[in-house]
């Protein structure tokens, strides 16, 4: 009798979970089709304008405190050998590497 109760309880939980999943998928699809108005506080370069109540994020500022005007992520393609040389140079210049060299001598 207890086995049937477990089967019934987990079946009900599974039906609730699947119904919740389907409902969320339908709501997300409706939400995706909805057009939202553009935010009013966007300034130049697509960054939010400076507001006295909400200062800009520190990563959007240069050393002088001005908004940066270049892209935040610039990807440059390099070949494997150049990447390996740069990683080797970083490894050789690391502080832990100097300690290992002294221990080996």
Automatic annotation (TrEMBL):
Keywords of the record: Membrane, Transmembrane, Transmembrane helix
InterPro entries, alphabetized: Phage_Syn9_Gp224
Residue spans crossing the bilayer: 6-26
Protein name per its UniProtKB record: DUF2973 domain-containing protein
Organism field: Tolypothrix tenuis PCC 7101
């Amino acid at each position: 009798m207890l086995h049937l109760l477990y089967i019934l309880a987990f079946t009900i939980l599974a039906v609730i979970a699947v119904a919740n999943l389907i409902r969320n998928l339908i709501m997300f699809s409706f939400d995706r089709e909805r057009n939202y108005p553009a935010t009013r506080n966007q300034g130049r370069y697509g960054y939010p304008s400076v507001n006295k109540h909400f200062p800009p994020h520190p990563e959007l500022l240069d050393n002088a405190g001005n908004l940066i005007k270049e892209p935040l992520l610039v990807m440059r393609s390099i070949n494997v050998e150049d990447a390996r040389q740069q990683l080797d140079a970083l490894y050789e210049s690391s502080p832990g590497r100097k300690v290992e060299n002294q221990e080996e001598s």
